[in-house]
Amino acid sequence: MRILIISDSHGEARLLREIVDRVNADHVIHCGDFTTDRNELPNVPMTVVRGNCDWEEVPEEDLWQVGQARFFVTHGHRYQVKSTLLPMRYRAEEAGAQIACFGHSHFPVCEQDGPILLINPGSISSPRGYPVPTYAVLETGEENRAEVAFYTTQGTPVHDRGGTFRWGE
C-alpha cells in the first residue's frame, strides 16, 4: 500500500492537489495546518486532523489502520514536537499505534523510537530548519515493514531522509 503523508500546507490547496495527483497514493494522511476550507482538500481517501492554525471541525487526533499497521495521526503542537519526540512516542504507544504521523515543526523527521516509527513529513509550504519543502511516501506490503521516502514539492527525492523500518520490535 502506498500512503502519502503530508503536513503544514498552509492554504496551498493547489499545490496539495498537484502532489496528491502526482503521488497517486492509496491513502493520504494530512497532519494538519491545511488552513483552507475542508471542501478544498482533495477528494481522495484521506485521514486529516486539525492543526493549531485550522478552523475546520476535524479531529485533533485520529487512528487509521491498514493491515497490521496502526497509525496515530495528530498535528503535534500538543506534544512538544519542536523540542522532543518522547511525548509523541508515549501517546502513540498509549493509542496502540505502531506509526505516529505528525507535523507542526515544519521539519522532516523519520526515525524509529523503540517499537514506534515516528514520521514528520515536513512542510510543503514553508520549511523550517530544512532547505526545501517536503512530503513523505510510506510503502508497506510486508508485515511490520515500511519503506519511507521523502520528496520535494516538485517530486525530486530527498536522499538524507527516510529508509526501511520495522515497527513493533
How would you describe this protein?
- This protein is mostly beta strands.
- It has one domain: Metallo-dependent phosphatases (Purple Acid Phosphatase, chain A, domain 2, 4-Layer Sandwich).
- Helices cover 12% and strands 37% of the residues.
- It contains two helices and eleven strands, in the order E-H-E-E-E-E-H-E-E-E-E-E-E.
- Strands 3-2-1-9-10-11 form a six-stranded mixed β-sheet, with no helix packed on it.
- Strand 10 and strand 11 form a beta hairpin.
- The chain is globular and about 40 Å long.
- The two termini are 21 Å apart.
- The model has no long low-confidence stretch (mean pLDDT 94).
Quickly name the level 1 CATH class. Alpha Beta
Rg, please? 14 Å
Oligomer: single chain
- The geometry reads as globular
Residues in helix, %: 10-25%
The gist of it:
The chain is built from 2 helices and 11 strands, in the order βαββββαββββββ. It is mainly beta.
Question: Could you list some keywords that capture this structure?
Answer:
Calcineurin-like_PHP_lpxH; globular; Phosphodiesterase_MJ0936/Vps29; mainly beta; six-stranded mixed β-sheet; 11 strands; EC 3.1.4.-; metal-binding; 169 residues; Purple Acid Phosphatase, chain A, domain 2; Phosphoesterase; 37% strand
